[in-house]
Design a protein that fits this description.
This protein starts with a strand and ends in a 14-residue tail after the last helix. The strands form 3 sheets. A 7-stranded mixed beta sheet has the order 1-2-3-4-5-14-6. It folds into 3 domains: 104 residues, 3-Layer(aba) Sandwich (Aminopeptidase); 153 residues, Aminopeptidase, CATH 3.40.630; 92 residues, SCP2 sterol-binding domain (Nonspecific Lipid-transfer Protein, Chain A), CATH 3.30.1050.10. Strand 1 and strand 2 form a beta hairpin. By secondary structure, the protein is an alpha+beta fold.
């Protein structure tokens, strides 16, 4: 197979990787520039989106070759991690591994009718960019420490470009107090007749009373449309879930072996340097050395009571070897570090491992997916 590859800029922050055979495009994908929250810091991510091969060129390995080239290009360009939302049982062949689950909370209208809350001023807009700055400010306040949540700059974020479906933007529902947005939800624009579908929720300061008011307003909207259920896409450890759980809900989580939200390490040293501020927060009161090996890279973390030095000049006797997808799962908190150690090649006594990489619930909200 003789292919040429070309990378062009589709728009600011979006890159197009194309495979050409005899001068004709036979496969392509896009690489969006992303920033994902990681506790007290953020990490640089090259997304993978819009993977496509025309039907007449399928079955010849062009898509696989294009993706391998894109991974190589991302490494050269200085991305630390790559992430995508992909079909089942395909992308693991390229080092990607599932890093998040899919979660929903469903409440029937009979149960939702029991919710009592403050009656706040509200507005449901067909403009997906309505109150975007205020929504982004709340989002950043309550999601900055959430691993995997996409960074939204309030000065430039343009609103909910999608809901749950990829085909159309979500509609913002906002609650206001003294004219200021204090809580919001992103509603699917054209849901089915039975369920009011919600792609995202947020409230200033994770205020439980505001989440209760938001749930009450969602009930009112569903009742007006004669729907039977409200279904919210939200991680199970979110405060909104704590608020509605006492009224009777169904919480569902799906974790794919290979599919959905997936990630892999591209540049280990750069990624650990980007993670360093958060690692130092976790390293308070502990000391030791730990060498991580991912692919052909080896990086040693030298921890001294809240200080973490990223050392590439020498190793340590405490070594953990990981695959690029497995490392992404660990760093983002998807895998329990004890379980990772039990299934990995380990030397010495890597006591720092469980302290530096605790289990979490990484999540990318539906409207932020690429």
């Amino acid at each position: 197979m003789s292919l040429e590859f070309k990378v062009t800029s589709e728009s600011p922050g979006w890159h197009r990787v194309e495979a050409l055979k005899d001068g004709k495009k036979v496969s392509w994908l896009s690489v969006p520039d992303l920033k994902l929250h990681y506790g007290t810091t953020s990490i640089t991510v090259g997304g993978v989106a819009g993977v496509y091969t025309p039907r007449e060129h399928r079955g010849r390995g062009y898509s696989a070759a294009t993706l391998r080239y894109a991974i190589k290009w991302m490494k050269e360009q200085g991305y630390s991690l790559s992430a995508l939302f992909g079909i089942l049982e395909y992308y693991h062949r390229f080092g990607f591994a599932t890093f998040m689950g899919e979660h929903t909370v469903t409440i029937c209208l009979r149960n939702a009718s029991r919710i009592e809350a403050e009656d706040l001023e509200w507005e449901l807009s067909s403009d997906s960019s309505y109150a975007s700055q205020q929504i982004a400010e709340i989002y950043e306040q309550v999601n900055a420490a959430w691993p995997g949540a996409r960074v939204r700059d309030p000065s430039s974020w343009k609103g909910f470009r999608k809901g749950i479906a990829w085909e159309h933007p979500a509609k913002p529902l906002v609650l206001k107090r003294s004219g200021r947005v204090v809580a919001y939800a992103a509603l699917e624009r054209w849901p089915g007749p039975e369920e009011l579908l919600v792609a995202e929720v947020g409230a200033a300061g994770h205020d439980r009373s505001l989440y209760r008011a938001l749930a009450r307003r969602l009930y009112g909207l569903a009742l007006e449309e004669r729907m039977s259920f409200i279904k919210i896409h939200v991680p199970p450890n979110h405060p909104f879930v704590d608020v509605v759980r006492p009224y009777g809900v169904k919480v569902e989580s799906t974790y794919f072996w290979s599919g959905g939200g997936m990630a892999r390490v591209i540049n280990l040293a750069k990624l650990l340097n980007e993670m360093r501020l958060e690692l130092e927060r976790r390293a308070a009161g502990i000391e030791g050395d730990l060498t991580l090996q991912v692919g052909g890279e080896a990086v040693t973390l030298r921890v001294r009571d809240g200080s973490v030095k990223i050392d590439m000049s020498a190793g340590s006797v405490n070594v953990v070897k990981l695959g690029p997808g497995e490392a992404a799962q660990l760093f983002l908190g998807y895998r329990d570090p004890v379980e990772v150690l039990a299934s990995s090649e380990v030397y010495g006594e890597p006591k720092l491992f469980t302290k530096l990489f605790p289990k979490a619930t990484p999540y990318v909200w539906q409207p932020d997916r690429w």
